[in-house]
Amino acid sequence: MFETPPLNALAAFEAAARLGSFTRAGEELCVTQAAISQHIRHLEEYLGVPLFIRHAPGIRLTPDGERYYHAVSGALNTLRTESARLRRGGGQLSVVAEASFANRWLAPRLIRFCERFPDLDLRIAPHPGRPELGPDVDIVIYPDMISSAGLFVLALPEERLFPVFSPAYFQRRGDAWKQDRLLRFPQGGENAWNRWFSAAGEHPTLHFGPLFQFAYMALSAAMDGRGPALGSSLMVAEDIRSGRLVAPLPQSIAVHSRYAAACEANVRHIPRIDAFFTWMKDELARDSAEFPEWFRTVSGD
User: Staple partner for 166: which of 74, 90, 119, 225, CB 3.0–4.6 Å?
Assistant: First the structure.
């Protein structure tokens, strides 16, 4: 049988070769320069060949050291990748989503996820940008993500945009809501309101209220009875189901962007990631069945 090289020595060698310094390798691995030097000396004794030429003020690899470095760095990178993949198979699942999606789609539904998968430790974080997938981020959910090599993308249904109101507000104002100040957010601002009224065959003089940075802020204001807002199918389905909002008007307009959920392709079928996608597709199918006029089909495996 072949004897396995000492793993601590391999890590020390890889760091020293990559950084060109025993001192910097020690700083990276949180050990002393002397410990790095000792690890490498033991590795050279084990292999029977010198790996470094020591010269002031630094070090350089021997030809044998160069060949060995490529082999060791490749093996350690494989170990890091596989270790991260296996760690994801545990109970903690990290999902990062665009702020409005996290607030108005994910948050109101999480009780059903937790009841269905009580052993999963789900971590939800809203984020204005789009973070990189990796060991700390399993799934990202944002508009207009495009499938690419190494990425699994679940495109969410195409949506519609329509006015929503708090029940008390609409009961009180009725058709007079059109004279009130309309709540706005970037995708549901003046242009979208004008498009909706034009599609409804109306051309009233419009009055606009506050412009909110995110859709969920305008929807929260609408729920508080502060005026009408434009709601998109994904964002308001659960609020309408629960009675927090009403959408009594039949006319709707297209939403040009489309949300998608993505993960690295090589972790797609890890149980906890698969559980989230399965739950998500079931939730989307429920919405589509209950509100067919607002959604089109979900695509994905």
Answer: 225
